[in-house]
Amino acid sequence: MDDTSRAEPREFSSPLLSTELQAYHGNHGVECEDKRQKETWSVPAILILTTLVAVSGSYVFGSAVGYSSPAQKGIMDDLNLGVAEYSIFGSILTIGAMIGAIISGRIADYAGRRAAMGFSEVFCILGWLAIAFSKVGWWLYVGRFLVGCGMGLLSYVVPVYLAEITPKNLRGGFTTVHQLMICCGVSLTYLIGAFLNWRILALIGTIPCLVQLLGLFFIPESPRWLAKFGHWERSESVLQRLRGKNADVSQEATEIRDFTKALERETEATIFGLFQLQYLKSLTVGVGLMILQQFGGVNGIAFYASSIFISAGFSGSIGMIAMVAVQIPMTALGVLLMDKSGRRPLLLISASGTCLGCFLAALSFFLQDLHKWKEVSPIMALAGVLVYTGSFSLGMGGIPWVIMSEIFPINVKGSAGSLVTLVSWLCSWIVSYAFNFLMSWSSAGTFFIFSTICGFTVLFVAKLVPETKGRALEEIQASLKR
């Protein structure tokens, strides 16, 4: 895996990547001014290859999430599991992900970004094999737990790695491919699972794991991680490979070096060490976005979608196809718009849309409780779910992970990333666990609560979340420490 010994790959130009290049000049990445000029980017093949290998892990993430639904009937019949036992199988994934999140930052910091992805895939492969060949329930739990650990690692390291290797004017779009591949993983696993045995489906789950594991031998380490450990020449060499042999990387390399040297005077922060005034804004933005993302009702909508579609007069399968038909194109649209419109506008539109979607669903349940507008309320519920799904996919699904990967300095990125990822998975578990209790209390009330939280998200983004489009990571991080 020598990063410096390979010949430069050929380059190709894409009209889709033609954009306005922003460059900033500053002292230690702090004093910055933007200078715009038209330039058509020539994207090296190694950058495309590296991104594809990294997001193979995102597909693994999605396939693990999408597995339990199509596999449920086959597993319960073959292994004689009850509903309670299968619920353990479903929920233990989140517990494993929380464990993976706790260790993700340390592994990525000390072993490197590639090594962290490699460790995660080893966990996932072992987990999928344990599921595929299980004869008793507890082997299923072990396998699902191992896949969860791998997911926890992947959910942190993939967006961080993508943010550290891509140029600033393409960083948002490239990093959001992480969310697009998660959507593809969920959707394709659900689709394939309708036709294949659950054991075969688990074995298929190992294929993207092996693709990433083998691909790691052909992609470079993060230049910023190399700089952190004093490998200046390798860092600049990798940066040159990622930008193209004819690109001038001297300014970017100098910014990375200067900012990294400035951080050397600061100690490596533990999770408890993050709670200092200089990291307060970054932590508030990173943790706040994850809490609002999960408490905005994404798991509730996903859980109850099938029932809502049935109540609207559609079959559950047609409803799920409709969700996929909305989700994947809207996520792709978010990828294309990320570096054109910016993070904040997409987040504001996305959060407003999720607020409207939850409000429509809540109003539908409220009207059903009053036994009024019986013909209209199911359609209103269907519209609410689709509006929510499309809006969430456009921004709130992927952008919090993009911003998390951008706002933390390299000396605290491991601890901060672990904390933010842990909070995300913990909140996901809380909402999943509490959802049935909330729905039994009041269906309308539950979605009104979700709508209110989504409305608060709009205010949170407007007041606290910085725009990071077209800015170097070092510039973003320095501005948040002021």
UniProtKB/TrEMBL annotation:
Q: Which residues form the Major facilitator superfamily (MFS) profile domain?
A: 50-469
Please provide one cellular component term from the Gene Ontology annotations of this protein. membrane
The text of the family note is: Belongs to the major facilitator superfamily. Sugar transporter (TC 2.A.1.1) family.
Family annotation (NCBIfam families): SP
Please give, as recorded in its UniProt entry, the membrane topology of this protein: Multi-pass membrane protein
User: What is the annotated localization of this protein?
Assistant: Membrane
- CDD domains to which the protein is assigned, alphabetical: MFS_GLUT6_8_Class3_like
Give the matching Pfam families.
Sugar_tr
Where mainly located? membrane
- GO MF entries: sugar transmembrane transporter activity
Keyword flag Transmembrane? yes
Q: Where are the transmembrane segments?
A: 45-66, 86-103, 115-133, 139-162, 174-192, 198-219, 271-295, 301-326, 346-367, 379-404, 416-435, 441-462
**Keyword Isomerase assigned:** no
Q: What is this protein called?
A: Major facilitator superfamily (MFS) profile domain-containing protein
Among InterPro entries, the record links this protein to: MFS_dom (IPR020846), MFS_ERD6/Tret1-like (IPR044775), MFS_sugar_transport-like (IPR005828), MFS_trans_sf (IPR036259), MFS_Trehalose_Transporter (IPR050549), Sugar/inositol_transpt (IPR003663), Sugar_transporter_CS (IPR005829)
Q: Provide this UniProt record's keywords sorted from A to Z.
A: Membrane, Sugar transport, Transmembrane, Transmembrane helix, Transport
